[in-house]
Automatic annotation (TrEMBL):
It is found in: Bacterial flagellum basal body. Its main location: other. This is Flagellar hook-basal body complex protein FliE. Belongs to the FliE family. The keyword Nucleus does not apply. GO terms for cellular component: bacterial-type flagellum basal body. GO terms for molecular function: cytoskeletal motor activity; structural molecule activity. It comes from Peptoanaerobacter stomatis.
């Protein structure tokens, strides 16, 4: 059976994503803290879903797989960022004035 596209995706359900104001002054330490907390929250959510799967409360394995992938990507990006920060600090500390 062929459905019309308008039947599958109602246009009134689509959310419009607005660009955030990029002119905000963001403190670097606040940015780093936010990234750490977001990575930690993603990991906690993944662990929570894992426990629900073990106990039988979670029926959708795809949700756990997606949460695990998101947590891994955030953690890897965070660790790469911290590694780059440490490398930059070492390079700056070698500069003689």
């Amino acid at each position: 059976m062929i459905n019309r596209v308008s039947d599958i995706i109602p246009l009134n359900d689509i959310k419009i994503i607005k660009k955030e104001d990029t002119n905000k002054d963001i403190n670097f330490s606040d940015f780093l803290k936010k990234a750490i907390y977001e990575a930690n929250d993603a990991k906690k959510y993944q662990e929570e879903l894992t426990q629900k799967l073990i106990s039988g409360e979670l029926e959708n394995l795809h949700e756990l797989s997606i949460a695990r992938g998101i947590a891994n990507v955030q953690f890897n990006a965070l660790s790469e960022g911290i590694s780059k920060i440490v490398d930059a600090y070492k390079e700056i500390s070698r500069i003689q004035i």
